[in-house]
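Query structure, 260 C-alpha coordinates:
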Protein backbone atom coordinates (compact mmCIF):
# COMPACT_ATOMS: atom_id res chain seq x y z
CA UNK A 1 0.00 0.00 0.00
CA UNK A 2 1.32 3.44 -0.93
CA UNK A 3 2.39 5.76 1.85
CA UNK A 4 2.60 9.07 0.00
CA UNK A 5 0.64 8.59 -3.23
CA UNK A 6 -3.15 8.28 -3.39
CA UNK A 7 -5.20 6.92 -6.28
CA UNK A 8 -8.83 7.24 -7.27
CA UNK A 9 -10.81 6.55 -10.45
CA UNK A 10 -14.11 8.17 -11.39
CA UNK A 11 -15.85 7.84 -14.76
CA UNK A 12 -12.70 7.13 -16.70
CA UNK A 13 -10.51 9.73 -15.02
CA UNK A 14 -7.84 8.58 -12.57
CA UNK A 15 -6.36 10.95 -10.05
CA UNK A 16 -2.84 10.22 -8.84
CA UNK A 17 -2.19 12.50 -5.88
CA UNK A 18 1.04 13.28 -4.08
CA UNK A 19 0.05 13.26 -0.41
CA UNK A 20 2.94 14.46 1.69
CA UNK A 21 1.69 17.94 2.55
CA UNK A 22 3.79 18.42 5.68
CA UNK A 23 6.91 18.32 3.46
CA UNK A 24 5.33 20.14 0.49
CA UNK A 25 5.22 16.83 -1.42
CA UNK A 26 8.99 16.66 -1.62
CA UNK A 27 10.63 13.69 -3.31
CA UNK A 28 12.52 10.89 -1.68
CA UNK A 29 13.18 7.37 -2.91
CA UNK A 30 9.85 6.17 -1.47
CA UNK A 31 7.79 8.88 -3.21
CA UNK A 32 9.65 8.25 -6.48
CA UNK A 33 8.99 4.50 -6.30
CA UNK A 34 5.33 4.94 -5.39
CA UNK A 35 4.67 7.48 -8.13
CA UNK A 36 6.32 5.24 -10.73
CA UNK A 37 4.30 2.23 -9.59
CA UNK A 38 1.05 4.22 -9.58
CA UNK A 39 1.48 5.33 -13.19
CA UNK A 40 2.39 1.81 -14.22
CA UNK A 41 -0.84 0.54 -12.62
CA UNK A 42 -3.01 3.25 -14.17
CA UNK A 43 -1.50 2.55 -17.58
CA UNK A 44 -2.76 -1.05 -17.38
CA UNK A 45 -6.31 -0.34 -16.21
CA UNK A 46 -8.97 -0.56 -18.90
CA UNK A 47 -11.31 1.69 -16.92
CA UNK A 48 -8.78 4.54 -16.91
CA UNK A 49 -8.81 6.81 -19.94
CA UNK A 50 -7.16 9.96 -18.56
CA UNK A 51 -4.85 10.54 -15.59
CA UNK A 52 -4.64 13.71 -13.49
CA UNK A 53 -1.45 14.27 -11.50
CA UNK A 54 -2.31 16.36 -8.46
CA UNK A 55 -1.08 17.13 -4.95
CA UNK A 56 -2.44 17.94 -1.51
CA UNK A 57 -1.43 20.75 0.83
CA UNK A 58 0.14 24.10 0.01
CA UNK A 59 2.52 22.99 -2.75
CA UNK A 60 2.48 20.84 -5.85
CA UNK A 61 6.04 19.60 -5.26
CA UNK A 62 8.98 21.36 -3.63
CA UNK A 63 11.66 19.14 -5.14
CA UNK A 64 14.03 17.01 -3.07
CA UNK A 65 13.20 16.14 0.53
CA UNK A 66 15.78 17.57 2.96
CA UNK A 67 16.00 14.23 4.81
CA UNK A 68 16.71 12.46 1.52
CA UNK A 69 19.36 15.09 0.77
CA UNK A 70 21.02 14.41 4.12
CA UNK A 71 21.37 10.76 3.17
CA UNK A 72 22.49 11.73 -0.32
CA UNK A 73 25.53 13.60 1.03
CA UNK A 74 27.07 10.28 2.02
CA UNK A 75 26.18 8.41 -1.18
CA UNK A 76 28.94 7.07 -3.39
CA UNK A 77 28.98 7.90 -7.10
CA UNK A 78 27.42 4.50 -7.84
CA UNK A 79 24.67 5.05 -5.26
CA UNK A 80 23.97 8.48 -6.77
CA UNK A 81 23.69 6.91 -10.23
CA UNK A 82 21.18 4.36 -8.93
CA UNK A 83 19.24 7.07 -7.11
CA UNK A 84 19.09 9.40 -10.13
CA UNK A 85 18.15 6.51 -12.43
CA UNK A 86 15.05 5.87 -10.31
CA UNK A 87 13.94 9.47 -10.80
CA UNK A 88 14.64 9.25 -14.53
CA UNK A 89 12.47 6.13 -14.72
CA UNK A 90 9.65 7.91 -12.87
CA UNK A 91 9.65 10.88 -15.25
CA UNK A 92 9.83 8.66 -18.30
CA UNK A 93 6.98 6.47 -16.99
CA UNK A 94 4.80 9.57 -16.72
CA UNK A 95 5.81 10.99 -20.09
CA UNK A 96 5.42 7.67 -21.91
CA UNK A 97 2.21 6.62 -20.19
CA UNK A 98 -0.20 5.47 -22.94
CA UNK A 99 -3.01 7.47 -21.31
CA UNK A 100 -3.13 11.29 -21.51
CA UNK A 101 -1.71 12.90 -18.36
CA UNK A 102 -2.90 16.28 -17.06
CA UNK A 103 -0.91 18.12 -14.39
CA UNK A 104 -2.89 20.01 -11.75
CA UNK A 105 -0.47 22.61 -10.38
CA UNK A 106 -0.89 24.83 -7.33
CA UNK A 107 1.44 26.47 -4.85
CA UNK A 108 5.11 25.84 -5.60
CA UNK A 109 6.67 23.57 -8.22
CA UNK A 110 10.39 23.66 -7.50
CA UNK A 111 13.29 21.69 -9.00
CA UNK A 112 12.02 18.18 -9.59
CA UNK A 113 8.49 19.55 -9.28
CA UNK A 114 9.06 21.43 -12.54
CA UNK A 115 10.22 18.13 -14.02
CA UNK A 116 6.93 16.52 -13.04
CA UNK A 117 4.97 19.31 -14.74
CA UNK A 118 7.11 18.99 -17.86
CA UNK A 119 6.57 15.22 -18.02
CA UNK A 120 2.78 15.65 -18.23
CA UNK A 121 1.10 15.94 -21.62
CA UNK A 122 -0.60 19.15 -20.54
CA UNK A 123 -0.93 21.08 -17.31
CA UNK A 124 -3.03 23.81 -15.82
CA UNK A 125 -1.76 25.99 -12.98
CA UNK A 126 -3.61 28.24 -10.60
CA UNK A 127 -2.57 31.87 -11.07
CA UNK A 128 -0.78 32.03 -7.72
CA UNK A 129 1.54 29.09 -8.53
CA UNK A 130 5.30 29.67 -8.65
CA UNK A 131 8.04 27.73 -10.39
CA UNK A 132 11.83 27.47 -10.19
CA UNK A 133 14.66 25.36 -11.55
CA UNK A 134 16.52 25.87 -8.30
CA UNK A 135 19.23 23.20 -8.45
CA UNK A 136 22.29 25.37 -9.17
CA UNK A 137 21.63 27.28 -5.95
CA UNK A 138 22.53 24.02 -4.20
CA UNK A 139 25.61 23.36 -6.30
CA UNK A 140 23.90 20.61 -8.29
CA UNK A 141 22.15 20.38 -11.67
CA UNK A 142 18.63 20.06 -13.11
CA UNK A 143 20.10 17.16 -15.08
CA UNK A 144 17.56 14.34 -14.92
CA UNK A 145 14.62 16.68 -15.53
CA UNK A 146 16.36 18.61 -18.32
CA UNK A 147 15.16 16.52 -21.30
CA UNK A 148 11.54 17.01 -20.23
CA UNK A 149 11.96 20.70 -19.48
CA UNK A 150 13.75 21.38 -22.79
CA UNK A 151 11.06 19.45 -24.67
CA UNK A 152 8.41 21.73 -23.15
CA UNK A 153 10.03 25.17 -23.09
CA UNK A 154 12.94 24.94 -25.52
CA UNK A 155 16.68 25.02 -24.94
CA UNK A 156 17.08 28.80 -24.89
CA UNK A 157 14.44 29.43 -22.24
CA UNK A 158 15.65 26.44 -20.25
CA UNK A 159 19.14 27.94 -20.17
CA UNK A 160 17.83 31.16 -18.66
CA UNK A 161 15.80 29.59 -15.88
CA UNK A 162 18.25 26.78 -15.14
CA UNK A 163 21.21 29.17 -14.87
CA UNK A 164 19.50 31.96 -12.90
CA UNK A 165 17.40 29.64 -10.71
CA UNK A 166 14.94 32.54 -10.47
CA UNK A 167 11.33 32.02 -9.54
CA UNK A 168 8.66 32.71 -12.13
CA UNK A 169 4.89 32.98 -12.00
CA UNK A 170 2.16 30.89 -13.60
CA UNK A 171 1.59 33.48 -16.34
CA UNK A 172 5.26 33.15 -17.36
CA UNK A 173 5.02 29.35 -17.14
CA UNK A 174 2.19 29.54 -19.67
CA UNK A 175 4.04 32.00 -21.91
CA UNK A 176 7.06 29.72 -22.19
CA UNK A 177 4.96 26.57 -22.63
CA UNK A 178 5.59 24.79 -19.34
CA UNK A 179 1.87 24.84 -18.55
CA UNK A 180 -0.97 24.95 -21.05
CA UNK A 181 -3.37 27.21 -19.19
CA UNK A 182 -3.65 29.33 -16.05
CA UNK A 183 -6.80 29.38 -13.91
CA UNK A 184 -7.85 32.12 -11.51
CA UNK A 185 -8.97 29.76 -8.76
CA UNK A 186 -8.86 26.08 -7.76
CA UNK A 187 -12.48 25.75 -8.86
CA UNK A 188 -11.62 27.08 -12.33
CA UNK A 189 -8.59 24.77 -12.35
CA UNK A 190 -10.77 21.71 -11.77
CA UNK A 191 -13.41 22.85 -14.26
CA UNK A 192 -10.80 23.10 -17.00
CA UNK A 193 -9.32 19.71 -16.12
CA UNK A 194 -12.79 18.16 -16.26
CA UNK A 195 -13.37 19.76 -19.65
CA UNK A 196 -10.11 18.38 -21.04
CA UNK A 197 -10.79 14.96 -19.55
CA UNK A 198 -14.29 14.83 -21.10
CA UNK A 199 -12.90 15.79 -24.49
CA UNK A 200 -10.25 13.07 -24.38
CA UNK A 201 -12.60 10.39 -23.05
CA UNK A 202 -14.73 11.00 -26.16
CA UNK A 203 -11.70 10.17 -28.32
CA UNK A 204 -10.64 6.67 -29.33
CA UNK A 205 -8.41 5.15 -26.62
CA UNK A 206 -6.23 3.34 -29.14
CA UNK A 207 -6.04 6.52 -31.24
CA UNK A 208 -4.87 8.46 -28.17
CA UNK A 209 -2.24 5.85 -27.43
CA UNK A 210 -1.06 5.90 -31.05
CA UNK A 211 -1.16 9.70 -31.14
CA UNK A 212 1.12 9.96 -28.12
CA UNK A 213 3.48 7.41 -29.64
CA UNK A 214 3.73 9.15 -33.01
CA UNK A 215 4.22 12.58 -31.45
CA UNK A 216 7.05 11.14 -29.39
CA UNK A 217 8.57 9.48 -32.46
CA UNK A 218 8.36 12.62 -34.61
CA UNK A 219 10.07 14.72 -31.96
CA UNK A 220 12.36 11.86 -31.07
CA UNK A 221 15.30 12.03 -28.76
CA UNK A 222 17.47 9.05 -27.95
CA UNK A 223 15.93 8.74 -24.51
CA UNK A 224 18.23 5.91 -23.40
CA UNK A 225 21.33 7.95 -24.19
CA UNK A 226 19.85 11.11 -22.70
CA UNK A 227 18.90 9.26 -19.52
CA UNK A 228 22.36 7.74 -19.12
CA UNK A 229 24.01 11.12 -19.72
CA UNK A 230 21.86 13.08 -17.28
CA UNK A 231 21.96 10.42 -14.56
CA UNK A 232 25.75 10.29 -14.67
CA UNK A 233 26.10 14.09 -14.75
CA UNK A 234 23.97 14.64 -11.64
CA UNK A 235 25.72 11.79 -9.83
CA UNK A 236 29.12 13.31 -10.61
CA UNK A 237 28.01 16.76 -9.44
CA UNK A 238 26.47 15.47 -6.21
CA UNK A 239 29.75 13.88 -5.13
CA UNK A 240 31.86 16.88 -6.21
CA UNK A 241 33.26 19.33 -3.66
CA UNK A 242 30.82 22.02 -4.74
CA UNK A 243 27.86 19.66 -4.78
CA UNK A 244 28.67 18.43 -1.29
CA UNK A 245 29.05 22.00 -0.01
CA UNK A 246 25.77 23.07 -1.60
CA UNK A 247 23.82 20.17 -0.18
CA UNK A 248 25.32 20.65 3.28
CA UNK A 249 24.63 24.39 3.19
CA UNK A 250 20.99 23.72 2.32
CA UNK A 251 20.67 21.16 5.09
CA UNK A 252 22.39 23.44 7.61
CA UNK A 253 20.32 26.45 6.47
CA UNK A 254 23.31 28.63 5.66
CA UNK A 255 24.80 30.21 2.56
CA UNK A 256 27.23 28.02 0.63
CA UNK A 257 30.88 29.09 0.45
CA UNK A 258 30.52 30.60 -3.00
CA UNK A 259 27.65 32.89 -1.94
CA UNK A 260 29.21 34.38 1.19
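Result returned for the query:
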Amino acid sequence: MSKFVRESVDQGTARVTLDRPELHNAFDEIVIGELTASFERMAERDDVRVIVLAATGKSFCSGADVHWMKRMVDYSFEENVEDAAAMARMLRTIRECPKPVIGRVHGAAIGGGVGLVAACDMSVAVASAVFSLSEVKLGILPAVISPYVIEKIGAGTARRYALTAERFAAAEAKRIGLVSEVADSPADLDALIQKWARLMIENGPEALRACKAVLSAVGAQDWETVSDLTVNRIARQRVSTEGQEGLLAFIEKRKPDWAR
